[in-house]
Design a protein that fits this description.
Oligomer: single chain
Number of helices: 12
Number of strands: 11
CATH superfamily: Luciferase-like domain
CATH topology: TIM Barrel
Order of helices and strands: EHHEHEHEHHEEEHEHEHHEHEH
CATH architecture: Alpha-Beta Barrel
Strand order of the largest sheet: 1-2-3-4-7-8-9-11
Distance between the termini: 8 Å
């Protein structure tokens, strides 16, 4: 089994530091490709956790790279009109020649994200139904055939061009480990892409459930991708690695780092420990891992590039 390793670009962290230019982000993406990593990822938020708009930035990265897959970790599609989203995604998929992956989520039920939905004019309580109808409409438009649609949105003989490079559109991965998202992923999406909580064993339990739902829906579980969003602080001084992880999570979420570590897949420690941790995810069935670093991005990218070879 081949394991792909990707890298989460620090769009949120740079904006928090007052760095709004994109030069650093684009250079880090170039470096990821040069090191042989498999993908780069960008998170999504309008106002709750301000950062660069992911689709625009992925288009720029797709245009200057040749092999990297480019993806959202994860997109909040319900904040966007699905006709516009289908058009944007199809265009980026053409720019990248089929390297786009759309990780999708619905947003956590916290005040900042509720406020974000309100600012976009989107009802928070209806987000699951809105997500699923929006995905169905995107996929209908990605066929390139005339679409008639009556629902939250109305389309009359709408024909989208360009069609995506990928037949049927870019793969969609369900982000989140709630029972509802696990079921929706197994029945409707192309991959599962949670960020926690627990560790490799709990990820494996969720993956087993995703595949069971796929079988119930008459789908081939082997056609789905098992992925994971992982946060790492790699340092041979394990106490320093743990402190750095806690500080990073505290600054990122404005909550105690220890509490976030219980809710997300996080590792702090040596290179050997990180390697063993990643191998446990692989043994549980994860074939794609998107890694978020707590600092020293180029150093940790180089370590992970070496580890990618060892995993495979």
């Amino acid at each position: 089994m081949t394991v792909s390793l990707g890298y989460l670009l620090p769009t949120r962290e740079l904006c928090m530091a007052g760095v709004h230019e994109t030069r650093t982000i684009l250079s880090l993406a170039d470096r990821a490709e040069a090191l042989g990593l498999d993908s780069v990822w960008i998170g999504d938020s309008l106002l709750a956790k301000p950062r660069h708009e992911p689709l625009a930035l992925l288009a720029a990265i797709a245009a200057r790279t040749k092999k990297l897959k480019v993806g959202t970790a994860v997109l909040l599609p319900v904040l966007r009109n699905p006709v516009l989203l289908a058009h944007q995604a199809a265009t980026i998929d053409q720019i990248s020649e089929g390297r786009l992956i759309l990780g999708m989520g619905i947003g956590a039920d916290v005040p900042a994200i509720r406020a974000e939905f309100e600012s976009a004019g989107v009802p928070f309580e209806k987000r699951v139904g809105r997500l699923m109808e929006g995905v169905r409409l995107c996929r209908a438009l990605w066929t390139g055939e005339p679409v008639d649609w009556e629902g939250r949105w109305t389309v009359k003989q709408g024909v989208l061009a360009p069609k995506p490079w990928s037949p049927g559109g870019p793969p969609i991965w369900g982000g989140g480990g709630t029972p509802g998202m696990i079921e929706r992923t197994g029945k409707n999406f192309d991959g599962w892409f949670p960020a926690g909580s627990g560790g490799p064993a709990s990820w494996g339990e969720g993956w087993t459930q995703v595949k069971a739902h796929a079988r119930e829906a008459g789908r081939d579980p082997a056609s789905l991708v098992g992925a994971a969003y992982l946060t790492l602080s790699i340092d041979e001084d394990e106490a320093r690695a743990s402190t750095q992880l806690n500080q990073f999570l505290q600054e990122y979420y404005k909550l105690p780092g220890e509490s976030i570590r219980k809710r997300q897949y996080c590792f702090a420690g040596s290179r050997a420990g990180a390697m063993a941790w990643l191998r446990e995810f692989a043994e549980a069935g994860a074939t794609h891992m998107a890694l978020r670093f707590t600092g020293e991005h180029e150093r940790q990218m180089e370590l992970v590039a070496q580890m990618r070879g060892e995993l495979n």
